[in-house]
Amino acid sequence: MNVNDDLEKLIDNLPLFLQEQLKYHPRKDQLIEIVLDLGRRPEARFTTGPEYLSRKVISWQDIDYMTKRISKFSNENRAGIERTLHRISCIRNRQFLINGLTCRVGRAVFGTISVIRDLLESEKSILILGKPGVGKTTIIREIARVLADEMEKRVIIIDTSNEIAGDSDIPHSGIGRARRMQVAKPELQHQVMIEAVENHMPQVIVIDEIGTELEVLAARTIAEKGVQLVGTTHGNCLENLIKNPPLADLIGGIQYVTLSDDEAKRRGTQKSILERKAYPAFEIIIEINRQDSWTIHEDVKSSVDLFLRGNFIVGQTRQFSLLEKILIKSKRVPSSQNFLLKTNLTESLTLANKDWMTINYLKDDKLLSLQSKKLIIYPYSISNNLLKEVLLKMGFKFVLTNDIRKAGLIIGLKSHLRQNYKLTNLAKQKSIPIYALNQINFYQISKLVKFLFY
Asked: What is the predicted pLDDT for the residue at 213?
């Protein structure tokens, strides 16, 4: 993971007495923002907490010194530094004079989105949820670069506040080959979104901070035209989105439906229930819980339906760090409508509404090293010829067996595995991991194999 922050350019625009403090600060790589308020001591906010930079208080001259060295403030009271991603926001008094500055450090972090690379390759629209300051803009900037440079897509960024590609007519190198359309006024963002599709033939549209009903409507319109969307909005989790009327249309919208007496009795619910109105504009939702832990909803339609029916939402958690491999977990609370397996090798095997169920290995010396051994596969309700074709094309050494006791893993159709308790119990006793596919075809099997061994 590489970081390009151009921090020196921000420091060089600060008052002189602060430049010396920050240039040699031992934690400057952890700097989030610098706060300069009139009559108060300057404060630096790091990931580890705040710290005063000087005993000297900020004067009118200090604020004036900095505002003259940066770009002009927009109607949103935001400015920037040429060819960087830093953002300077101002606070004004009743006479509209600037008496406070918040200098936010902008960083282009390369490699952040390796944890969701498979989701980008699915070509589905992705919505990123998170609290302000959690790093949503950094993530979509890197997504735009990967889609444009590595996947060679035609990517257009709708940059309303110039936070994605910087405050300059020349976009920051952090977006790669992606193109950037600036928005003159925030209230015109929805118009620029539509204009981008009509005039520039993008394959992907990237939007930061979808917040109004007009922007939601524009996003739905773009999705219906077959263009992939990548966007962000504020919220902690999917539930916040469902309960937010202006944004609910991003996930299909919510409506009250009145059931007949017989149907209500059959479902065991009240006659008036909540249901999803339409297909979601975004098919995948990523909740940024922490910078190193994300919750993934790979099938938004099913997640929303489960929530509205009062069941627990199936979620996938992906954790990563600079020193360890990516860890993928699938979590849920048991419900009568789902089927749960457990084995000694895994914390949990969850049969969810996904391409396959997710397996989370324990860190144990007795773990089966599938990559270093010849694969011994027990196929269940799956064509041996199809499985052979996939594995041979991908260059794996394998053996197909009809004796489950010799198997190193089991691959089968989920709907059939649910009904075979004898098989699953035997697998549990023998500590054999089971991988269940929703559908049996070349694409699904090859995707599972890539997930396991790459």
From this structure: 92
